[in-house]
Design a protein that fits this description.
9-stranded mixed sheet; binds zinc ion; 8-stranded parallel sheet; alpha/beta; about 450 residues; single chain; 14 helices
Length: about 450
């Protein structure tokens, strides 16, 4: 047992329960008690003095491309399409070694910023690149994060009217077969699972309608979730109108891609009808505020999505369009963007924390197990230090976490296992991960 006590607690449960001085008790991989004051009993438990700290649910990252950690700093002034065209040929050279190094570093960075569950959207599978999906799953196990890799795919290249070159797309049937194989090999539907697979064709301008439809059929027959990019940029909307004669959300609807088993990355450019459709169908959104800023894509209508009861989570997005790769600071970034769009009442600090926790758990279909601190849920807990110069004196700990600078972690638990302690990883060596990432990035750059 691990007992965290003498800390502020923000449970992010349905009632918004908070304790100015409380405890979280963990046994095995589950939370057994959350409440005010110290935890009575369990004299043999490992006790963590959380004085000066805030306990929250571990953050849930709903969109990423971990391999991109090895391709940071490219195409610095480009919009999405220009950025992709510069990067596709670089990505064509990745292999399992690249992905292992990039995923280890990317997941380590996420853990150090309070993330306990991450998804990944991997859609580049070079023919002689080895088993890249296995490589990132191995990396997640080493870092110790709960992991939802999405088996992505692209089958629409330039010669067929798409954006990517032939070198990075797959044959449609081969992509579907490999996706089925990924589910068979790695998907764990059991309670408390550390690895779950989702099915994730990449985007409207890189995937054929047939692959979208058949991927949805496959996911639903296998009981796994669906993920894709949608409505990220004005150029994507123009593409959909020209090629399909409708908006991206109407296109997704025509393919069977709206539903409570689907979550969409970005959803920036939405008309009121599209927002209503997402709300009515329970389709989730992975909001990626820093990536949208880096690419100048626009500001997602998060307030309107929440008012329409759309499940909204936060995503860091791939590190090639968001070099920082940390999830904690996205709480503040989401709040800032919502307020730039809708004024200072558009999103509260607590709503922002809810996006990063229970909102993300809803996107991944795991709100029954993750995203809030409640007895019976999985013991994924972040304990943030708020007594340093960055936060000291801010009376409201949730405001300190969201408005303040990135908070150091006193402790990060994933399923009750210590992954970060006193600001350092307990699982992998950070300096070795950085060195491996630098080698992988240099190799890709020099092969140009
Ligand atoms: Zn993305």
């Amino acid at each position: 047992m691990i007992v965290i006590e003498h800390c502020a607690v923000s449970t992010v449960d349905g009632a918004g329960t908070e304790h100015a001085d409380g405890h979280v008790a963990v046994e095995g991989d589950r939370i057994v008690a959350v409440g005010p004051g110290p935890y009575e009993g369990a004299p043999d438990a490992t006790r963590v003095d959380g004085t000066g700290c805030l306990a929250t649910p571990g953050l849930v990252n709903t969109h990423h491309h971990l391999y991109q950690s090895a391709t940071r700093g490219y195409a610095q002034q480009e919009i999405l399409f220009g950025w992709l065209k510069e990067l596709y040929p670089v990505w064509a050279r990745i292999d399992a070694g690249t992905v292992h190094a990039a995923a280890t570093a990317g997941l380590a960075k996420l853990a150090l910023s309070g993330c306990t569950t991450s998804t990944d959207h991997h859609y580049v599978f070079p023919r002689d690149g080895g088993d890249v999906l296995a490589a990132e799953i191995e990396a997640a196990a080493a870092v110790g994060l709960r992991f939802h890799p999405c088996r992505g795919s692209m089958d629409l290249s330039v010669k067929d009217g798409g954006l990517p070159p032939d070198s990075v797309v797959e044959d449609t049937d081969a992509a579907l077969a490999a996706t089925k194989d990924a589910i068979d090999r790695f998907h764990d539907p059991s309670p408390g699972a550390m690895v779950r697979i989702a099915v994730a064709p990449c985007s409207p301008f890189s995937v054929t309608p047939r692959l979208m439809r058949e991927a949805a059929d496959l996911a639903r027959s296998e009981g796994v979730r669906l993920h894709t990019h949608l409505a990220e940029t004005v150029e994507e909307e123009a593409y959909c109108r020209e090629v399909h004669g409708c908006t991206p959300v109407d296109y997704a609807e025509s393919l069977g891609w709206l539903g409570d088993d689907v979550w969409l990355a970005h959803a920036v450019h939405l008309d009121p009808g599209a927002i209503a459709k997402l709300g009515a169908t329970g389709t989730g959104v992975a909001h990626c505020p820093s990536s949208n800023g880096r690419l100048g894509a626009g500001i997602a209508p998060v307030r309107d999505l929440l008012d329409a009861r759309v499940p909204v989570g936060l995503g860091v997005d791939g590190a090639a369009s968001q070099e920082a790769g940390q999830l904690g600071p996205e709480l503040r970034q989401a709040l800032y963007l919502a307020r730039l769009r809708g004024g200072p009442a558009a999103l509260t600090a607590r709503e922002s924390l809810a996006l990063g926790t229970i909102g993300g758990a809803r996107c991944l279909g795991r709100a029954d197990e993750l995203g809030s601190l409640e007895a019976g849920k999985l013991a994924d807990v972040a304990l943030w230090r708020l007594d340093g110069i960055g936060h000291a004196g801010i009376d409201d700990p949730v405001a300190a976490l969201v408005f303040g600078p990135p908070a150091p972690l006193r402790l990060l638990l994933v399923g009750g296992r210590v992954v970060v302690q006193d600001g350092a990883l307990s699982t992998v060596d950070e300096a070795m991960a950085a060195a491996a990432l630098a080698r992988a990035a240099r190799k890709l750059r020099e092969a140009r």
